[in-house]
Amino acid sequence: MSDVCTSPFCNAGWGELLSHMSPYGFANFGIAFGLGFSVVGAAWGIWLTGSSLVGAAVKAPRIRSKNLISVIFCEATAIYGVIMAIILANKIKKPDEESYQLPENWDFPGFYYAGYGMFSAGLSVGLTNIASGVSVGIAGSSCALADAQDASLFVKILIVEIFASALGIFGIIVGIIESNACNFPIAALDNGN
What we know:
Layout: H1 14-20, H2 23-59, H3 63-66, H4 68-89, H5 108-149, H6 154-180
Helix pairs in contact: 2-4, 2-5, 4-5, 4-6, 5-6
């Protein structure tokens, strides 16, 4: 066997790959990462909180109902991802379909700007929501365990959990700001005619 690569992708670098991928692909990957990572963050947080809640409820059954608020805070991170996915999906517009031939003055940089911007918005929201879900899960776990030991600690630790949940809110705000400038062109550029 020969070690010589005959594929046209052998000498291609990352820059060539990124510049030849469809901007619509980048936009859809941004939606997928934003939604997917947000759900992973919520699931991870619910797992952390729920396992501690069920374990601590064996010792103190009174904590079961009021500590469900920790699970709700974790679930909010998934909702932030859904909101961002809806916002980004509504920004994807098909170009004019007058003909299959693109004019010379078609706005290709505008397409890539919108695609990369939507990718970065979705990725930043998704990664922020993973961090938010895990931090809310850890704080919720601590809240359940502390409440099982001493009921007066519930509100004090719940405040820390609220601050951890704010990370997800900050992430979606940053994602909305990033996505505001991401608009796919729907017509050719005007040459001033």
